[in-house]
Each structure stands twice: as C-alpha cells, then as structure tokens.
Specification:
Largest sheet: 6 strands, antiparallel
CATH superfamily of the largest domain: Jelly Rolls
Helix content: 40-55%
Shape: globular
Number of domains: 2
Number of helices: 11
CATH architecture of the largest domain: Sandwich
Distance between the termini: 9 Å
Order of helices and strands: HEEEEEEEEEHEHHHHHHHHH
Length: about 300
C-alpha cells in the first residue's frame, strides 16, 4: 500500500484539506485532514505515522488500543500521536469533530537507511513505541514546517521536507524507541554499555533458542543479579521483557511472508509452541497472528 493509501484506508470519512500526493516528495508523505466524530476501522500500518493536532478539539478525546495498551488522550493544540509500523490499532474512537489534524507518514526504508548509515541494528521502524498525547518541541517544529510547505508550495520546499523527514526519523528513534532509554546511558569507561551491547547482539543472534538469565549474565561476564540490574538501567527493560519484545519483532517481520506457516514463525521467533506464540502476539498487538497477516496482505 502506498503512503497516501494508508490514510484513505484508516480515515475513510475524513476530509482531505491538503495532501502531498503529486508533489514528488521522497521518503515522506503528509495529509492535512478534518475528522468527524465516530469510530475508525482497525488497521496494521506499514509505515510510521506521526499525527500532530494543529488546533485543539474543543474538548474532543481520542481513544485507541494497540500494542497491548488502551490510550485515551484529549485533542489539544500541538498534541502528538505515534503509531509505529506493525502495531495493530483497533477500537479507535474520536469523541467530537476535529479540524486541522496533520498526518505524516515515514516509510520503513527511512529507518533502514539510517540504520545502515550509523551501523546501528537498533534503528528499526517496528521498534518505536506506541504513544499518545506527546509534547515534543522538535517534532512540533518539523511538523509545522511540513504543514507550511503543504499549504504553500515553494521552489525549494521539497528539499526542506525531505530533510525534515530525516530529522523526524532520527528524533523518534532517539527519543521513543523500545531499544533506547530516556535515562542517560552509563559512561563507556565503567564497562557497562559495551557488555550490554554484547548481550543484545547475542540475544538477536540466538533468538530462536531458549535463553536463560544465567546464560545472558555469562555473556556479560556479570553475576545474574548484577547483570539484571545493569541491563534494566541501560535498556529500560528487564532481560525477560527485552527478549520478549525482540521475539515479537522477529515474528512481525516473518508474518510478512504469506507462505510461511505460523508454526515455523513461532519456532523461529523462539516460542515453545504455536499456541504460546499466538497468545503472546495477541496480548501485545491486539490481533491474532493470522488476523495480523491478513491485514498486512
């Protein structure tokens, strides 16, 4: 599905006030929409969606469910919503009509290019958190620049917008990725960060296996107790939680292969059985693996 097609599918009753369709923008798309009150269809996005409210909703509230979370947030001016690649959304409801809502779409290959540029495997489109009601001055500033070009096309506007797309990608990775923490990382001199990076690489290389805390602690050359504390401080997740998130990320990528059996995906993702995989996947995304795959198709 093209990036503008995503907006048409997710917002079938919304009015389009401005669109980047036909502008020739590379690696980004944008739409300015007005939304009626009511329910939206369920969807599994194939690109990163950043939504910015340019105007408040006069008491309007958006509720939605995705990534195992139910969110309810007021529509206030400059409020931001993030919907990452692969996170199935459903039960989306808008309580009152909304005007001037900017939707920005970033394709997965933006994240791939950034990952290759910096040699960082943690930069992934499916690693961004599902968040609502953010206040981020940088995203707001970039969003308003894109909106201005959307409303009044300029001779060098395409260059500005494509540079903004790179900055937006870097910002959501830096500030809102599962693989990163909002707390500062320990300094390299204390030896913690290199050890944890080594463990993360080991987890990703052995995701199909049954990984124990003792084994991961041995890779880090730390006691299990000390390793668990350091890992949580550096990554923001427990070792168990991190491994679980990695397995589900692998499963989401494998589900894009329509011919791959679910039992094979379960085993390649490190789950003991298809039943365990299905239960964990639905608990986290809100969709069964089969339903998720059908939406991708």
């Amino acid at each position: 599905m093209d990036m503008h097609g995503h907006g048409a599918q997710k917002f079938p009753r919304a009015g389009v006030l401005a669109t980047s369709a036909g502008r020739g923008w590379n690696g980004i798309a944008a739409e300015l929409r007005s939304h009626p009150a009511g329910d939206l269809p369920s969807i599994v996005p194939t690109q990163m969606e950043i939504t910015l409210a340019l105007r408040g909703g006069d008491g309007a509230v958006v509720s939605r469910k995705g990534a195992g979370q139910r969110q309810c947030s007021p529509v206030e001016r400059d409020a931001i919503w993030l919907c990452p690649v692969g996170v199935g959304e459903d039960e989306i409801h808008i309580s009152a009509p909304l005007d001037e809502i900017l939707h920005i779409y970033l394709p997965s290959d933006r994240f791939v290019a950034l990952s290759e540029l910096y040699g960082d495997g943690g930069i992934r489109a499916d690693a961004i958190r599902y968040l609502a009601g953010l206040r981020d001055p940088l995203i707001r500033q970039l969003g308003y620049a894109i909106h201005e070009e959307l409303e009044r096309e300029t001779s060098a506007g395409r260059m500005l917008v494509e540079a903004a797309a790179l900055a937006l990608t870097a910002r959501v990775v830096q500030a809102y990725s599962h693989d990163r923490t909002e707390k500062p990382l320990p300094q390299a001199g204390n030896g913690c960060s290199p050890r944890i990076r080594r463990v993360i690489g080991f987890i990703r290389d052995n995701i199909e296996r049954d990984l124990s805390l003792r084994e991961l602690a041995d890779v880090a050359c730390l006691s299990p107790f000390h390793f668990a504390r350091v890992f949580k401080r550096v990554t923001g997740k427990t070792p168990h939680g991190f491994v679980g998130a990695e397995r589900l990320a692998v499963a989401r990528r494998l589900l894009a292969d329509q011919g791959l059996p679910l039992v094979t995906i379960a085993h390649r993702s490190g789950f003991s059985s298809q039943a365990a995989f299905s239960a964990s996947f639905k608990r986290t995304t809100g969709f069964s693996p089969g339903a998720y795959r059908r939406r991708l198709a």
